[in-house]
Amino acid sequence: MQPQEYMKLDNQLCFAFYTCSREMMKLYRPLLSPLGLTYTQYITLLSLWEQDGVTVKELGSKLFLDSGTLTPLLKKLENMNLITRTRDKADERSVLITLTDRGRELQEQAAEVPLKLYGETRVTKEDIAALHKHIQAFLSKIAE
């Protein structure tokens, strides 16, 4: 590729990720709306459904979210009665995030979201699996 080709928008890897991410959000929106969730709330709950009772710091690291983004997000989920935030008795500086009964019950309703999403993409399961593998490998090389 010639140097001037690198400067074209369509040749920017970051732009491909950005536009793909935006299009994915468009696909998620109507699937999450009946659950009353945004995409960021959904991935937060996905993480908690995998491992409940984590600290804010652990959750932020897993989701690649800073505290300025995570704190209002958790406050909203708490107001929705999906999580509770409590000080860790072992370390008062840490705040533990725990699912409420309502938060755990929502997992059942949310279980159909990934399957519906895959149906919306018109991409084979094999292609999705391969893409996911490549993205995870790429992320592991660039993440700090």
TrEMBL record:
Predominant cellular place of this UniProt entry's protein: cytoplasm
Coiled-coil ranges (or none): none
InterPro entries, A to Z: HTH_MarR-typ, MarR/SlyA-like, Transc_reg_Sar_Rot_HTH, WH-like_DNA-bd_sf, WH_DNA-bd_sf
UniProt domain HTH marR-type: residue ranges: 10-140
SUPFAM superfamilies assigned: Winged helix' DNA-binding domain (SSF46785)
Domain of life: Bacteria
Keyword field contains Hydrolase: no
One annotated GO biological process: response to stress
The entry's keywords: Cytoplasm, DNA-binding, Transcription, Transcription regulation
Pfam family of the protein (one): Staph_reg_Sar_Rot
Keyword Protein transport: no
Location in the cell: Cytoplasm
Recorded GO CC terms: cytoplasm
GO molecular function ontology, one term from the record: DNA-binding transcription factor activity
Name this protein carries in UniProt: MarR family transcriptional regulator
Source organism of the structure: Paenibacillus faecis
